């Protein structure tokens, strides 16, 4: 018998499970990241009338010859709500399952942007009932000091398992998977 209770949409295709969730109106199941230095920030035109001001185009160079343009919308979550500027070292997360234009440099709609800060790591991924990431590389150990929040900064009062999470953390163990006690977990509802 199939359990019809749904926490996130889980579908099975050829024994491959994906965990889909709407983020900013886009269905996202798998996240990818790109890190580098911001080389340009400009307004990005949208809509039929070429409206500008709400969306930004952020150009990022990883220093090894790879360039990426991120489209930041009002739905893009910026960790710690910091202002990004040219010269900042950042990591942008985007949905791998979302259609993108076939142009160079590649252009992705940013789901999460993070200004790199020493001794702070960020992972955006689906975490299962054991709070292990979908790639099996990180397991979370929640402490009483761990802040568990919604994207709007309000407290999330349930257990954050079986969800897409934005995890801000510091040191990890050298085990497989690495384990950490996060500073902050942002639940993507």
Structural overview:
By secondary structure, the protein is mainly beta. The chain has 2 domains: 84 residues, OB fold (Dihydrolipoamide Acetyltransferase, E2P) (Beta Barrel), CATH 2.40.50; 67 residues, no CATH class. The chain is built from no helices and 15 strands. The strands form 4 sheets. It has a 5-stranded mixed beta barrel. The two termini are 27 Å apart. The N terminus is likely disordered.
List keywords for this structure.
189 residues; mainly beta; OB fold (Dihydrolipoamide Acetyltransferase, E2P); 2 domains; four-stranded mixed beta sheet; 0% helix
Please write out the topology.
Layout (H helix, E strand, L loop, with lengths): L8 E5 L2 E8 L2 E3 L2 E13 L12 E6 L5 E6 L4 E2 L10 E7 L11 E9 L5 E7 L10 E3 L6 E4 L12 E7 L8 E3 L3 E4 L2
Parallel strand pairs: 6-9, 7-9, 11-14, 12-15
Antiparallel strand pairs: 1-2, 2-3, 4-5, 4-8, 5-6, 8-9, 10-13, 13-15
